[in-house]
Structure prediction request, 216 residues.
Amino acid sequence: MFKLPDLPYPSDSLAPVVSDVTMRTHHDKHHAKYVETTNGIMAGKGDSTSSLEEVVRQSSGGREQKLFNQSGQAWNHGFFWESMTPTPSQPSGSLAEAITRAFGDMEAFKAKFVAEGVGQFGSGWVWLVAQGADVSIITTHDGDTALVHEGTPVLVCDLWEHAYYLDYKQDRKGFLEQWIDKVANWPFAEAQYAAAQGSGQPYSYPAPVASESMAA
Ligand code: FE2
Prediction:
């Protein structure tokens, strides 16, 4: 069964961009529920599997929609926690060059990322993805994930209201502007971009553990 990974930083360390109460509710309640429901469906099927990535991919394309929604959300949140950091950072090296090639400059990239996130109707996610050396921005609906679309996920921001409503009310644009400016984790994004070029491993969700060790 899959575990809820710990946040990679203290829950209050992203404030004021993302408040402690938002982080705790989002991680401890929302993410935990996606993981729990995924485990419940998997247990009901009697399946054991090697990775959450495998569950997401095998349930995609309408094959098992409920499992895809839940496992996709479990994976997306794991990737989302890593996409943020309390340590200010900027893209550098080959990823910075790819962003400049694709968008003109960093400010134009940020404006496009915010605009795409604002333009996503309803719940979903806004992603920076890499296809080879090129980067682009995509959005996915609800529990859909860039993991099953073309390209390698590099960075993601959660567009569900539970990600920002307590702090920004309905102002998704204000949330996205603060997020991309202040808490986006560029060292993590650079590692994903390098993995897309075949250098190093991309992010993977923590491997499942046997039920006995969950109880320990
Ligand atoms: Fe979320």
Residues 26, 30, 77, 158, 160, 162-163 surround fe (ii) ion (CB under 6 Å).
